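Predict the 3D structure for this chain.
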Amino acid sequence: MNQSKTPPHIPTQARTRIQRRNHSAILNAALDVFSAKGFRGATVDEIAQAAGLSKPNLLYYFPSKEAIHLQLLSGLLDVWLAPLRDLDPEGDPIPEILTYVRRKLQMSREMPRESRIFANEILQGGTHLGDTLTTALKPLVDEKAAVVARWRDTGRIADVHPYHLIFSIWSLTQHYADFDVQVRTVLGDEGADPYPEAERYLETLFTRMLTP
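Done. Predicted structure below.
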């Protein structure tokens, strides 16, 4: 995503320590508000309150709710795609795919707010992502799907559909972030950590599915 489209209201190099702190506080608060309410449901007043700032003070850093949202989205797709980008065509196929599964699950564990913001953006049509889905996400997915297809066609993994394999990894890992309350409620112990067992389950699932 081109970050020049959504520059902070104050250039990074010109910010004082307090300005940097406030800027970070706004973005962190916005993560909470946007992940809970989505872009449409969030307001500048709520973000300012969560950041411990007045609305005029917040608007000193960001001119609008849209600017805050775009600042959060900028770079998020790169972070989201990094584990897929690291899938090594020369590596051992099943370990490579399992590493991707683990990293995606780890991101759900460590970045649930970012996951929900991204999911909400996609559910709303991805309008704030502009053309990055076609210029950044699709070419990378095409590239890695071709790698999976080569592994399949040479008998190194079972006969799987490359794109649907990637889709299934996304859905099965990101579910734990996007539906955290549901997961913990159904498991019956809201204080328990579902991720270790989820990792073991997904490793077994994909290993069995991918083994020729």
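The chain has two domains: 3-72, 76-210.
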